[in-house]
Amino acid sequence: MEKLALVAQIQAYTGIGIGLMIGLGALGACIGVGIMCSRFLEGAARQPEMIPALQAKVFLLLGLIDASFIIGLGPEVNGCQTTLR
User: Fold this and answer.
1) Which residue, 55, 79, 59, is CA-closest to 67?
2) Is 81 tagged catalytic?
3) Contact 51, 44 (CB under 8 A)
4) pLDDT at 84 over 60
5) What sign has the CA pseudo-torsion 5, 6, 7, 13?
6) Are 40 and 53 in contact (CB under 8 A)?
7) Are residues 44 and 50 in contact, defined by beta-carbon separation less than 8 angstroms?
8) Domain 2-84 indexed as CATH 1.20.20.10
9) pTM of the predicted model as reported, rounded to 2 decimal places
10) Which of 22, 37, 50, 75 is the most buried (most CB within 10 A)?
11) Which parts of 1-85 fold into alpha helices (H)?
12) What values do phi and psi take at 47, rounded to 5?
């Protein structure tokens, strides 16, 4: 009976840990995107002639920031599926 309670406790903490990893990863990506876009708008306001060059770099970095979050979801989702079996 003691082993069953220990396994249940481990599964519960694993779910909490995975939820924190996903939530904090999403929070970090959102903060990064927000800071980058605000700096883009500041730069565009200062030098409007640089908008096309800056815009291309911003879109590239937006994709990389989102990709890093999505790649980080892989092990978390895999761990969640393993825990639920």
Assistant:
1) 59
2) no
3) yes
4) no
5) positive
6) no
7) yes
8) yes
9) 0.73
10) 22
11) 2-46, 51-84
12) -135, 85
C-alpha of 44 from chain center: 27
Tell me the CB-side half-sphere exposure of residue 1, using CA atoms within 13 A: 0
Two structure tokens written together for 2: 């003691």
In which residue are the tokens 């979801």 written? Answer: 73
Assess contact for 60 and 33: CB atoms under 8 A.
Answer: no
Q: How far apart are CA 75 and CA 20, in angstroms?
A: 13
Residues composing the chain: 85
CA-CA distances (angstroms) from residue 30 to 3, 23, 36, 37, 73?
40, 11, 10, 11, 15
Which of 37, 56, 66, 70 is the catalytic position?
A: 66
